[in-house]
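Summary of Year 1 activities. Much of the first year was spent building the evaluation harness for sequence design. The harness presents a backbone, in tokenized form, and records the residue chosen at every position. We chose the following record to illustrate the format because it has been used consistently in internal testing since the harness was completed.
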């Protein structure tokens, strides 16, 4: 489900930030019974306080409100901090997340951003990434699969979430299931390469890529031919 966003920029907190339309947080705050209700979600299972505006868990609520929600006045910030004081915010244990790979996704955690990504299917490998480029590097460095070999069935499309988007050591992706009737606007596309799987998780086949290359070559040829004809006409007019 698409979410409204505050006017402040979330900044470079992760390798892959979504391009989303942001709304003023003050409008949403006015609709809520109390400041913070509806977009600050506490998850007891994972001991995390999630900001649904930004799609990740909050480590320091005071710092997050100050830096990411500057449109909230001091009195409202103090009230939010007071009402959430005493919550267990240790974050999820590593074993809670690593068990959810491509073959065992869990239900999506409310409030966290969902990313389209890739899972390495090499036996015993648990590598997950939202980046096609990072997947290629992983296949090359860890499994010595280079070039065309890396196009083989060594990966699968997945939906990913992470509680934290930085620093890098805190990022831990896990696989989630997304209902077929869900709103695709809430899912960010995997970043990367023209060879990345396209559309709704379908793989770009060799035939698709050859067709695309052929169309591009034809377009270039048409442009070149048109330019040549224009040059010839200009030369004739100058004579």
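For this record, the design step produced the sequence shown next.
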């Amino acid at each position: 489900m698409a979410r409204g966003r505050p006017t402040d920029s979330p900044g470079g907190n992760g390798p892959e930030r979504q391009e989303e339309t942001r709304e003023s947080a003050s409008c949403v705050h006015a609709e809520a019974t109390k400041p913070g209700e509806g977009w600050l979600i506490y998850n007891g299972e994972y001991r995390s306080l999630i900001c649904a505006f930004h799609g990740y868990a909050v480590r320091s609520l005071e710092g997050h409100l100050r830096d990411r929600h500057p449109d909230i006045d001091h009195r409202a910030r103090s009230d939010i901090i007071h009402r959430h004081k005493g919550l267990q915010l240790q974050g999820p244990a590593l074993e809670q997340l690593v068990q959810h790979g491509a073959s065992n996704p869990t239900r999506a955690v409310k409030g966290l951003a969902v990313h389209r990504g890739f899972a390495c299917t090499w036996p015993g490998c648990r590598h997950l990434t939202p980046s096609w480029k990072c997947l290629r590097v992983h296949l090359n460095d860890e499994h010595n699969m280079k070039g065309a070999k890396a196009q083989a069935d060594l990966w699968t499309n997945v939906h990913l979430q992470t509680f934290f988007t930085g620093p890098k050591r805190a990022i831990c992706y896990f696989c989630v299931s997304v209902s077929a009737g869900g709103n695709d606007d809430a899912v960010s596309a995997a970043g990367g390469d023209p060879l990345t799987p396209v559309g709704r998780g379908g793989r770009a086949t060799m035939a698709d890529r050859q067709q695309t290359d052929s169309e591009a070559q034809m377009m270039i040829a048409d442009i070149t031919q048109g330019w040549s004809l224009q040059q010839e006409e200009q030369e004739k007019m100058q004579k």
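The first helix runs from residue 25 to 31. Quantitative recovery figures across the full test set are reported in Table 2.
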